[in-house]
Amino acid sequence: MAMSIEQQHRCSLAGLCSVLILCWSLSCARAEEDKPPHRRFEYKYSFKGPYLVHADGSVPFWTHTGNAIPSADQIRITPSLKSQKGSVWTKTAPSFENWEVEVTFRVTGRGRIGADGLAIWFTSEQGLEGNVYGAADSWNGVGIFFDSFDNDAKKNNPVILIVGNNGKLVYDHQNDGASQALSSCQRDFRNKPYPVRAKITYYKKTLSVMINNGFTPDKDDYEFCAKVENMVLPQQGFFGISAATGGLADDHDVLSFLTFQLTEPGKDTPPADGEITKEEKDKYQEEFDNFQQELDKRKDEYQKDHPELKEHPVDDMFESVNERELRQIFEGQNRIHLEIKQLNRQLDMILDEQRRYVNVVSETMAKTGGGGHEDQQASQQALDALFNGQREVLKYVNEMRNSVSETFRLVSGNQNLGAGGYETTQHFNDLKEHLHVVKRDIEHLVQKNLPHEKQKCPEVTLPSCLSTTHFFVFVAVQSVLFIGYFMYRSQQEAAAKKFF
């Protein structure tokens, strides 16, 4: 009997140990899954300014075709001319199982509508020339398209599309690839104050696209755009960027293209691609030393020829007054944009509440329609007074909207002047005074329309009574929200005019 109890204890302890070991192994596996992948920068499949090009105009490890124009700090894929095509591609094809690219670009143009767009590629072959945003059609791989022209007239552009292809698909230009896109999102990437950034990650057969909208200088401020799961891409492929223009034109400038190889946690990091020999390292080091000596020699000669620069060093690191004012305006517009989004959500809630109150009042009037003539006459007089008060409020709101529009127009007109700081401050002070005047007038209207004697609400079968005071307060809140909307419209128009 004692042996059986001892054996039971041993069995229970063994079972407990096995459960603990299983839980520990599961927690370790979960922790391994939650760890981010190891990122290794691949310089042979990347470019970034300054000193981006060689003396002969070529980009190291990349080839460019068509109307692409490399410069010291960027590559202009296509200039803002009609019917232009250009592209840049890696000279070698990497064999990455998982990868990530970060692309920084600008799409700018003088028109409200641009064309045709820009594309980022990972394909098994270089699509040097073609009709798909300047690259070849029927590709084998994936293309991320930044389409800025609305071919199908559905008013859903600019848009970002993920389109996969096995080498047999012909891109549907007329419908903007709507039926061929695996995923998409609508984002306006044209004429932004800061460069737009796209982070494209292919990890564990899942392709995801994150976008920095170009409204903020924060490089890590990304938001989700699109995602495709269970996507099989070629094991070996070329990275590329292409762009094209049509009847309309934009400048498509790529400032940087950074490529990273991703390795899953727990796996050994693959060896560096193309390890060079010691003789080649010594040769490159000798070339670098010679280049450094030549550079120092030229610096000394330049300083001897320009002695006046020693007393007045270059202060490019300090921003000018105009640059500071533009930065402050862009940051303020970004904050206004976020506030308008919040006000828009609140406005939708208030409109729903207003519809509910209108329905309740309509049902109540319908039920009391058979009452006395005196009650109907009193209700009609109260409604007339409310409508008259609301008309006066709307009149003051329109005056304030005109004042706000005029102020934004003056600010946008004076933002490039040397004395723009004082005038901008003065306009915003005038706007503040107008807001105070409108607020005082609205309070006066509310006090004027308040009843002198406390009146009892009509006895109706309602959950609550809507008094005149509540109605005016609701009208005032709604007017403020409409003001915010008009300010947002005016700000958007002013921001659009800056780049025309």
Automatic annotation (TrEMBL):
Give the coiled coil ranges: 274-301
Q: How does it sit in the membrane?
A: Single-pass type I membrane protein
Where is it found, in Gene Ontology cellular component terms? COPII-coated ER to Golgi transport vesicle; endoplasmic reticulum membrane; endoplasmic reticulum-Golgi intermediate compartment membrane; Golgi membrane
Q: Does the keyword ATP-binding apply?
A: no
SUPFAM superfamilies hit by this protein? Concanavalin A-like lectins/glucanases (SSF49899)
Give me the segments passing through the membrane.
471-488
Query: Can you cite a GO biological process for this protein?
Result: endoplasmic reticulum to Golgi vesicle-mediated transport
Q: Indicate the secretion signal residues.
A: 1-31
| Top-level lineage group | Eukaryota
Gene Ontology MF annotations = D-mannose binding
Entry's localization field = Endoplasmic reticulum-Golgi intermediate compartment membrane
Q: Does the keyword Membrane apply?
A: yes
Q: Supply the Gene3D superfamilies for this chain.
A: 2.60.120.200
Q: Where is the L-type lectin-like domain?
A: 39-262
Spell out the Pfam families in the cross-references.
Answer: Lectin_leg-like (PF03388)
Q: Which UniProt keywords apply?
A: Coiled coil, Disulfide bond, Lectin, Membrane, Signal, Transmembrane, Transmembrane helix
Q: Which PANTHER family is this protein grouped with?
A: LECTIN, MANNOSE BINDING 1 LIKE, VESICULAR MANNOSE-BINDING LECTIN
Q: What is this protein called?
A: L-type lectin-like domain-containing protein
- Top-level taxonomy: Eukaryota, Metazoa, Chordata, Craniata, Vertebrata
